[in-house]
Amino acid sequence: MEAFREGIVVPQGLIAHGRGECFDYLIGEETIPPAREAIRAAAAALLTARHPVISVNGNTAALVAEYIPRLAEEAGAVIEVNLFYRTRERAEKIAELLRRHGAERVLGVDDATARIPGLEHPRGMVSPDGIYSADVVLLALEDGDRTEALKRMGKRVIAVDLNPLSRTAQAADITIVDNIVRAIPLLVREVAELKERPRGELEAILRSYDNKRVLAETIEYIGERLKRLAGSLLHG
Ligand code: PTJ
Q1: Three-state SS for 69?
Q2: Ligand 1 test: best mutation among 141, 175, 176, most atoms within 8 Å of CB?
Q3: Tens digit of each residue's pLDDT (9 = 90 or more) over 73-113
Q4: Residue 13 C-alpha to ligand 1 middle, in angstroms?
């Protein structure tokens, strides 16, 4: 609520947050095994990328700003503020918040001069040195149109999204179905650990990763959990 009052989160962001909470109850408010596998693959994708970018919107900033600079540093990634409801003032506020948490360089405020093809202005504005030229983009709580547009640009997309059925979750190459407040600290740890491994091992992690299977396992997990909960109501 504070981030909303400060103008970091938009009203639509509060609705997005509520939707997420609902899915968090369904997974039991913990990081489930398929999400752990996705986090590992995400770390491998960031570490093997030529130009990885962490895209930060209002909700991401409000929930995990303190972890983003560390993640960027460990992964050798660039941070870019990228907003659906873009105003210069909001972008600057979010960049300032990230700088307060230690980010040295934050793109996407005055340099968002390139366009993601197929997205209207200002929703498609990105930095030429950031998302526009990235090969891997990590995003979270993202709108489906924008994720699909990044995929059409040929980027490898890593998404954090509690809804395994959302268009973002379905379009991404690696979908971490977990609450961002749990997923990002785990991702920071995983990147720090995998960083020491040979590149061949990271590539092998990526080759054996199948996002469709991981999403299917997530949905199965929710189904089994709900069946168990229903059973315990009926049979005590
Ligand atoms: O800050 P801006 O201007 O870029 O605006 C961001 C908006 C509000 C446009 C953006 O967050 C949005 O519209 O998101 P959606 O399309 O509602 O999608 C958000 C997705 O994130 C939904 O599938 C939610 O289930 C999921 N979600 C919500 N809270 C969390 C979450 N995923 C992970 N962790 C959460 N805490």
Answers
A1: helix
A2: 141
A3: 999 999 999 999 999 999 999 999 999 999 999 999 999 99
A4: 6
Task: Kindly give the interhelix angle for 68-75 and 33-48, rounded to the nearest 10 degrees.
Answer: 50
The model carries a pTM of 0.97
Alpha-carbon Rg for the chain, nearest whole angstrom, is: 17
Q: Quote the ligand 1 centre to 9 CA distance (angstroms).
A: 10
- Residue among 45, 51, 58, 50 at smallest CA distance from 16: 58
What is the best residue among 15, 59, 92 to mutate for testing ligand 1's pocket, by most ligand atoms within 8 Å of CB?
Answer: 59
Give distance in angstroms: CA of 231 to centre of ligand 1: 32
Chain segment 5-58, per-residue pLDDT in tens: 889 999 999 999 999 999 999 999 999 999 999 999 999 999 999 999 999 999
Question: Before 122, cis peptide (omega within 30)?
Answer: yes
